[in-house]
């Protein structure tokens, strides 16, 4: 402890000692009293209530509140000494085995049946039983057995509600509890930044009270009030940021790009080989109106895989070209950029052949700019772009490089926005003399409350209809560990599809050897120490399939480490039907369009996220034949990984899956935590469960900003917003 006046900025080493402070900093990134105060409990346990041991996942670092049921000592087979096995239960019917190696008779006496304790460690599995090897633990005071509960460790759990913190093996939850108590007892609470009128109107408790009660709640009601106040702070900070930026953006000047009768867009509509859906027409009207205004469009276009977003975007690009400007589309991979290029050339035909024999009168040029272009081709393409002859420019991040200049960039279309960093998108926008109009596309549906929070300064359009002719996709989970015969059947089923003249994908989580050095298409593999094998890899699976269950089938390989021309050649061969099966990484996740591909087998499907699996299976069923997606996993029945896959298999409703994805992910990641400061993510706010609170916070933010746009009369609030939604996050929110 310290006798000096302490504040939220006081370093922890002055409060809890250098050794503990070093552990908190090194393992949990907590450095000051304020950091610790905002390190909220993950949950609250009560003695006698279960924490559902059955739901624990292998490899998870956990803390469980449980009661000792029985102990057993037996000699070890491989070395001298005894093994102590302690079975604990949590009231749910689930049990967990704690194993301690060596002669530890004192531990057996301590861990006697009936004692309650908190046990922390990594979940492993041995012979079908969940266990913790050598866990850290602290026993709770048990007044019924005549023991005094006065020692310091037991005092931490004297209340009815026991906080369980996000912890680390070296810093278990009870150490954090002890440190929090020191901070609460010695640190002055921070000034409350929330205007008194808002607190009164919304019936919110003070900040100091909320911080105390969230760590040491007197009751469930007090905890609810504390969480509600702290959730409000998070929602209010985000909404104030979005509302202020939306007002600022409305004042930006931009060049209007109104539609022109008899131009490229009209000619394109006349030659389209199919009718637009009602949704495509309606969204097209919204975008056309935005482009005709003199401040920049900033619109998010979301729609299921195959809902026709690309055609909507192309029509917007043609309107800009009709108005004398240029449009650029930024794609996440060269494969997708090249496919967009081929697709647009096919759709436009003579309208994309300006300067060539047989070109239409209103024609423009469509250029592809990627990093793999040869020197001569690059010079030619860049000359077309800078002269304005190329009305439509497609490319990857190569468009961002110095030396790629536009004559008059009027519209930026960003495909699959989550694949790009803020700086990359901003670099492309900066290539215009005035802010260009921006259209962001995503095939990952966004729940309403997420859109309200993350994209509160964008207009949002949704395509919910699928074009005519799209076939249904059936999805099934293949439990390879429990029922190996099911996997054998999957490969036979794939051969049947190939035998009918159709094609298939086999998707793996990683490339193979040295993929930690690979490009941006995949994450490097995560090796765990729980006996679980590394994720399956393309370079290892492809030859095994060629020699085994898919012998004689024409197999191609596609991944992010292949040279660009080789990737393009493989995709062309697959699209032309020269390959039967493509063994690939998630490089095929977005945009790849082969209507003859009817089946996908996703290996180690539990290693992928919900939205990613939904995107992947959208690659099949794009023609007239129905699609089939098989999710192969070794995840055991009842595990959260298996439940996630069962949910994906049960529905093709992207919005339902987006909500499931959100429920299972850390909320802060939705706001791009990886692109921003370590303290700038949502700790408590649930974008799904707190929809009403978010809506109320937005209403208060609009009223406050209209009265005080710069928050000049609320300096404490401005500082609080800046701390929670730092400059990087504000930029992330602004750019969507």
UniProtKB/TrEMBL annotation:
It holds the Pfam family DEAD. CDD domains: RecG_wedge_OBF (cd04488). Keywords: ATP-binding, DNA damage, DNA repair, DNA-binding, Helicase, Hydrolase, Nucleotide-binding. Transmembrane segments: none annotated. Residues 486-663 form the Helicase C-terminal domain. Gene3D superfamilies: Nucleic acid-binding proteins, P-loop containing nucleotide triphosphate hydrolases. One of its GO terms (biological process) is DNA repair. GO terms for molecular function: ATP binding; DNA binding; DNA helicase activity; hydrolase activity. Residues 290-463 form the Helicase ATP-binding domain. Residues 515-534 are annotated as: Disordered. PROSITE patterns: HELICASE_ATP_BIND_1 (PS51192), HELICASE_CTER (PS51194). NCBIfam families: PRK10917.2-1. This is Probable DNA 3'-5' helicase RecG. It comes from Micromonospora craniellae. The lineage of its organism: Bacteria, Bacillati, Actinomycetota, Actinomycetes, Micromonosporales. The gene is recG.
């Amino acid at each position: 402890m310290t006798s000096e006046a302490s504040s939220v900025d006081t370093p922890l080493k002055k409060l809890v000692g250098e050794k503990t402070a070093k552990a908190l900093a090194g393992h949990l990134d907590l450095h000051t009293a304020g950091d610790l105060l905002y390190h909220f409990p993950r949950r609250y346990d009560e003695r006698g209530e279960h924490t559902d041991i059955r739901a624990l996942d292998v490899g998870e670092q956990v803390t469980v509140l449980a009661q000792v049921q029985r102990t057993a000592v037996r000699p070890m087979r491989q070395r001298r000494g005894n093994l102590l096995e302690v079975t604990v239960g949590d009231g749910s019917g689930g049990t967990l085995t704690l194993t301690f190696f060596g002669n530890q008779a004192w531990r057996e006496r301590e861990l006697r049946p009936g004692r309650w304790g908190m046990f922390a460690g990594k979940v492993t599995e041995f012979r079908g039983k969940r266990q913790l090897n050598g866990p850290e633990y602290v026993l709770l005071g048990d007044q019924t057995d005549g023991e005094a509960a006065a020692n310091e460790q037991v005092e931490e759990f004297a209340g009815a509600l026991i906080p369980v913190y996000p912890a680390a093996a070296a810093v278990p939850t009870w150490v954090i509890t002890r440190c929090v108590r020191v901070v609460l007892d010695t640190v002055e609470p921070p000034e409350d930044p929330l205007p008194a009128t808002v607190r009164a109107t919304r019936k919110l408790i003070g900040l100091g009270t909320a911080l105390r009660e969230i760590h040491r709640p007197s009751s469930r009601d007090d905890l609810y009030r504390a969480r509600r106040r702290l959730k409000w702070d998070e929602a209010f900070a985000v909404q104030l940021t979005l509302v202020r930026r939306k007002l600022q953006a409305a004042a930006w000047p931009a060049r209007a790009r109104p539609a022109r009768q008899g131009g490229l867009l009209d000619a394109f509509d006349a030659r389209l080989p199919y009718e637009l859906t009602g949704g495509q027409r309606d969204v097209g009207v919204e975008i056309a109106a935005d482009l005709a205004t003199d401040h920049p469009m900033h619109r998010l276009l979301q729609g299921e895989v195959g809902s026709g977003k690309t055609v909507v975007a192309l029509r917007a690009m043609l309107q800009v070209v009709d108005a004398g400007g240029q449009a650029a589309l930024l794609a996440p991979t060269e494969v997708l950029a090249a496919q967009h290029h081929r697709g647009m050339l096919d759709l436009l035909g003579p309208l994309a052949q300006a300067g060539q024999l047989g070109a239409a009168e209103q024609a423009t040029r469509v250029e592809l700019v990627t990093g793999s272009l040869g020197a001569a081709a690059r010079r030619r393409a860049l000359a077309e772009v800078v002269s304005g002859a190329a009305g439509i420019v497609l490319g990857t991040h190569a468009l961002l490089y110095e030396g790629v200049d536009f004559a008059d960039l009027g519209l930026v279309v960003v495909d699959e926005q989550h694949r790009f960093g803020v700086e990359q998108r901003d670099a492309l926008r900066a290539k215009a003399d005035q802010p260009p109009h921006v259209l962001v596309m995503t095939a990952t549906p966004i729940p309403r409350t997420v859109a309200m929070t993350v994209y509160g300064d964008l207009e949002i359009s949704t395509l919910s209809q699928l074009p005519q002719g799209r076939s249904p996709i059936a999805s099934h989970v293949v439990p390879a560990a429990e029922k190996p015969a099911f996997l054998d059947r999957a490969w036979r089923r794939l051969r049947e599809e190939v035998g009918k003249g159709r094609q298939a994908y086999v998707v793996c989580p990683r490339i193979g050897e040295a993929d930690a050095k690979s490009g941006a298409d995949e994450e490097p593999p995560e090796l765990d120490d729980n006996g679980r094998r590394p994720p399956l890899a393309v370079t290892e699976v492809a030859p095994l399939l060629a020699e085994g269950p898919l012998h004689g089938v024409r197999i191609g390989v596609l991944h992010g480490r292949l040279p660009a021309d080789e990737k393009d050649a493989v995709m062309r061969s697959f699209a032309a039907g020269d390959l039967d099966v493509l063994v690939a990484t998630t490089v095929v996740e977005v945009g790849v369009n082969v209507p003859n591909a009817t089946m996908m087998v996703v290996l180690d499907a539990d290693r992928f996220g919900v939205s990613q699996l939904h995107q992947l299976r959208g690659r099949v069923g794009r023609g007239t034949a129905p699609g089939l997606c098989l999710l192969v996993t070794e995840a055991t029945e009842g595990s959260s990984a298996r439940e996630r896959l069962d949910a994906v298999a049960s529905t093709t409703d992207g919005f339902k899956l987006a909500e499931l994805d959100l429920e299972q992910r850390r909320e802060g990641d939705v706001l791009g935590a990886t692109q921003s400061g370590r303290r700038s993510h949502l700790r408590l706010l649930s974008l799904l469960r707190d929809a009403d609170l978010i809506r109320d916070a937005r209403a208060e933010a609009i009223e406050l900003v209209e009265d005080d746009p710069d928050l000049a009369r609320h300096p404490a609030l401005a500082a609080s917003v800046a701390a929670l939604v730092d400059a990087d996050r504000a930029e992330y929110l602004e750019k969507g």
